[in-house]
Amino acid sequence: MVLKVERLSFGYGKRIVLNGIELELKDGEILVLLGPNGCGKTTLLKCINRILKPSEGAVFIDGKNYLEMNEREIARSLGYVPQDHKPPFPYKVLDFVLLGRSPYLGIFSSPSEKDRSIAIESLKAVGIEHLANRPYTELSGGERQLVLLARALATNAKILLLDEPTAHLDFRNTHRILAAVRRIVKERNLSAIMTLHDPNLAYRYADRIAVIGNERVLKVGNPEEIITEEVLKEVYGLDVIILSLDGIKFVVAEVI
Amino acid sequence: MIAYKHLLIRIPIFGLIFLLPFILAVISAGIGYLKISPEDVAKSILKQINSMIFGLNEEMSTADVVIFQIRLPRIVLAGIVGCSLAVSGAVLQSLFKNPLVEPYILGISSGAAFGAALAIGFGFLGGSVQLLAFIFGIISVFLAYSMAKVGGEVPVVNLVLAGIIVSALFTALTSLVKFFVDPHQLAGIVYWIMGSFSYATWSNIAIVTPPILICLLLITAMSWRLNVLSLSDEEAKALGVNVNRDRFTVLCLATLMTSCAVSVSGIIGWVGLLIPHIVRLAFSSDNRVVIPVSASLGASFMILADDIARSAFSFELPISVLTTVLGAPVFMILVRKRARRVWS
């Protein structure tokens, strides 16, 4: 177990979003958080990263309570991949990935040659070193998501947190990103928590799935256990049919 | 080395950029009613430096007096102010994550104008325009910052709104002062607000240069951190940066720099917007490049603008009118030609 969420609660003002969340991330696995819009998946991810401070409970990273760690220690342990967005300044891709070295740099320091080689190595790991000199703002959505992934790798964190990495992506790019995440996590022996919308994607790319709803974790299990007609109906309030072909399940919503 | 191989070609360009304000200063010191060649200006400067170092009391020619007592203070001050405004502009653009932000976004200009109006109109603090302009410039940013602070966080949107409110407030108060004072003082206030280097003295330079230089050095040292701060707050936090603390630090430095500049020159617009923008389009958005190059080009631009202001016509043009008239078309061309590709 590399990360443990214990009795974590969070609310925006009086509105409770998360209530006593318990969750474990095992070494080397990809844990997908699944749930309907507004169920608190993204909020949970931000609480795990301490971007948002939980009102109760804590997260233990390698057995260490993260409330006793400083920002830089957390940033070195958890590589965060935000949802795709365009930053206002057209930084070069390599410079942008170099920002991932920030948890190791003081307020007056600049990245060294070593930081630069780590950034280049992260670009190579994701397979986009040919983009190094391109302005980040000129890339396609799929390429930008890969750059964000490379930046998270540059932090050398053992745990990745990915917030809907496939939002706004087309069919090909969706699979390209998720395949890259899966390959890198397995190759480098990392662990990852990822929020997703599509049960089909969760089924294909997760080692385990945690279903979030009603401010808590409803169910955790391997994809075979979670991707069932009963569970999905309970979570999404929608009748679904599960088809099976060559042992692979496909979730299809019944037409309303 | 993939991204840095073309750096070698750039080293001579950067060298030239950093020399540019000094070259322009020497040329500019020869421009005016009494024309002096750049060689003679250089000789005169060397002579003066010599006599300062070795304590010699060489006789000063008319040209020496014109260069040292009249032109150089003005040129040096213009350079320092241009440098400050361009750098503060670049800094605030990063902090606000928006390339169209001016150094005056938090109300420094309106606050300083009110301070100057109090000094000119009512003779507050012995009528020290510079001191009051400086103090009220700082006060306005402090007010905007406190107004924007909600539960330990200072969201950028709040800062923008607070800046608008503070600006409006001080502009109204300045109007009130203008309404009460006599026409002569009213003219003084109006001229001050339009900006000028005609009152430049070595003692003014000696007062504002040390804080400006210290701020410039610290900001240059923090230029990588500025890159991180230009990301969304959430991303910067996830990268281990204490966003509120660092943003406050950088904001203080930029405010001090701008207030110093405004206190000795009045309100000069467009430099802080135009120069960093040109640097980003021509070189890079990396603040390790943007900050030092903006400093140098800001100084050069202001020296050139002041040359035109003081010598193009028989009267002196207000400098802010000139920077706007020069800046607006250039900006327009840049935005139409290249910005569509870069910012869209």
Helicity range of chain B: over 70%
Q: What is the name of the CATH superfamily of chain B?
A: ABC transporter involved in vitamin B12 uptake, BtuC
Number of strands of chain B: 0
* Radius of gyration of chain B over all CA atoms, rounded: 21 Å
- Please give the number of β-strands of chain A: 12
Corresponding CATH architecture of chain B: Orthogonal Bundle
The largest sheet of chain B, given as strand count, sense and whether it forms a barrel, is: none
Helices and strands of chain B, in N-to-C order? HHHHHHHHHHHHHH
Which word captures the global form of chain A? globular
Helical run tally of chain A: 9
Adjacency order of strands in the biggest sheet of chain A: 6-7-8-3-9-10
Low-confidence stretches of chain B: none
Short structural summary:
The complex is a heterodimer of chains A (256) and B (344). Chain A has 256 residues and is an alpha/beta fold.
SSE diagram, text form:
The complex is a heterodimer of chains A (256) and B (344).
Chain A lengths: L2 E10 L2 E11 L4 E5 L6 H8 L7 E6 L2 E2 L5 H7 E4 L11 H6 L14 H14 L14 H14 L4 E4 L8 H17 L3 E6 L2 H7 L2 E6 L2 E6 L1 H4 L2 H8 L3 E6 L2 E6 L3
Helix pairs in contact in A: 4-5, 5-6
Chain B lengths: L6 H23 L8 H17 L7 H34 L12 H15 L6 H20 L7 H25 L2 H12 L7 H20 L1 H7 L3 H6 L4 H23 L5 H12 L4 H25 L7 H25 L1
